[in-house]
Amino acid sequence: MLHLLRTHIEKIIPLNDDEFEFIASCFTYKKYKKHQFLVQEGEAVPYNYFVLKGLLKLVYTDETGKEHIIGFAMEDWWETDFPAYYQQTLATMSLECLEDTDVLCLQLEDYKKLCARLPKLEHFFLEKAYMGFITAQQRTISMMTTGIKERYDQLLKKYPSLVQRVPKSLLAAYLGVSRETLSRLPL
Amino acid sequence: MLHLLRTHIEKIIPLNDDEFEFIASCFTYKKYKKHQFLVQEGEAVPYNYFVLKGLLKLVYTDETGKEHIIGFAMEDWWETDFPAYYQQTLATMSLECLEDTDVLCLQLEDYKKLCARLPKLEHFFLEKAYMGFITAQQRTISMMTTGIKERYDQLLKKYPSLVQRVPKSLLAAYLGVSRETLSRLPL
Question: What is the tens place of the pLDDT at every residue in B122-146?
């Protein structure tokens, strides 16, 4: 499965075999079952996860116990409670499997070791961070300016396979509406 | 004024005089008056801006002509229509001076030249990108889960001097409420 990570990184920077061997040595392979948690609110966040196979939801639970979906992640995506991982604080979100999921796990210490030894990896992570920032900012704009129907259509256009795989109740929680409101839309 | 940029970068990575001289050679200094535009919707976005002095608003205007404030920027902040700058597309937002503003301007080509010659700058920009991503994601969470009063209080706590300097009508547009709603809150 490691070749998936190599293909993913090589879309942005070239790697030789020695470099990739070093990179691979910094990751741990783990398998999770549907409904298992990779990150739990209130606990430490040891890893950033690269998804090899499966589907995850990143959830923020508010004071009333209501779940808000901050994001989904599937094959070829990175996901974690990023502020908690990067700043080594406790998780304020949870990351849970919506399907059986295989991931490669990267500790922050190993991330730093990787970047110190292979500085070109910072270029790779910088591209990923810019895309994450752009996506998060566009979501803010979309939430401020766009109706639910248009936001659903944008999601469908950008990630058609995600919309197929995610239960409608979770899409509703991602869009910030009730399941009933979503089902009344002419989708 | 260039020393402000050096101090800013050296909070994250050390620089020697030669390195900073090269960095400085990649920036252009510009002065703008209150109400002038640095970025205009529909036009090219040649620069990313580092604010030396002053205050900017980043605005998205929807189809009905309503202005939504995506962000503010003041001393020591970077701002531009980032997707348009980085992907070299036309601006979908505008960036306008709320006060007379002095900036250092960085073209994308010069940004790439900088990172190629001084790879440690990618570490600097990576830190900035992570913080931008975290801030944008936290804003999404805040918009999904938090009332206007709490969002105003968060803003005041995080950026007290910003809240002092920005007109209340623009704070309302940032928070996504009318000026009247904001003025009825027990602030």
Answer: 999 999 999 999 999 998 888 888 8
Q: Which residue's entry shows tokens 């974690």?
A: A80
User: Which of A83, A120, A140 lies at the smallest CB-CB distance from B143?
Assistant: A140
The complex scores an ipTM of: 0.89
Q: Which residues contact A68 (CB under 8 A, 6 or more apart)?
A: A59, A60, A61, A62, A173, A176, B141, B144, B145
Chain A residues lying within 8 Å of B68, measured CB to CB? 141, 144-145
Q: Which residue, A12, A56, A10, A11, is CA-closest to A33?
A: A56
Domains of chain B and CATH, by start: 2-118 (2.60.120.10)
User: Which of B80, B139, B140, B146 best probes binding to A when mutated, by most A CB atoms within 10 angstroms?
Assistant: B140
Q: Is A115 on the interface with B (CB under 8 A)?
A: yes
Helix (H) or strand (E) holding B101: strand B101-107
Q: Does B130 touch chain A (CB under 8 A)?
A: yes
- Cβ count within 10 A of residue B160: 10
Report chain B's mean pLDDT, rounded to a whole number: 93
